[in-house]
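Predict fold of PiggyBac transposable element-derived protein domain-containing protein; 230 aa.
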Amino acid sequence: MPRPQRNTQIPLRYRDISPSPTPRSNSQPKRPRIDSKNVDRNQVDQALAKTEAAPEGADKDEPPTLISTELPEFKANYVQNRAGAPRYTSLSTIGFFQLFFSDFVVEMLSEETNKYAASKLENPSFLEKCHWVPTTPAEILVFIGINLYFGLYPMSVRADYWKFHNLGQFMSRHRFELVYRFFSTHSAPAPPNAPWFYRIQRLADLIRTACRNSYYPSSYIAIDKAMVGP
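Predicted 3D structure, encoded as tokens:
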């Protein structure tokens, strides 16, 4: 018995009824092939040049104006060739520290901290709770030294420094927390339109002046992008 033939035609609902593409006419010009070895650089620059937008009402048939792709001439600023050198080379560790935190700076920090504490302790109940005693320049030096110690030996809980490192021989933890709470570099209220760094601007200016007086940079320096402000 012969086998029945299968219907291999595609159902109408699955057929592609889109019109077939029209064949390319022989009269249409073909795109020329570009030989990469014989490319004129000037032609490429002109092709990649950006065009200025035509003003409203201008003649659309007018050819666009090309923007020049030539780079401007670079003129380097002349800097005298010199080698960087520090002014102080035989100072002790505390001597280098005092170049930036001089007696004047430490006294200023002590005065500003006391002024800020006085402004916050105008509430009598708050004053009785804190038991604040005005600080001194010597105590501010200890306070700064403890903060530097934190950076050398980082710990997750600040109270552990007094538990395991015996910092109580220099300053009690309660006293440190009080000084830390009222420590200020500029206690005066910020004027209108003051910069965001107003509170530390005075201290930053003093340290910047000390840096300029302590080291002469060489003519060849590299400035990191994080050091350049907006």
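Residues 50-54 have pLDDT under 50 and may be disordered.
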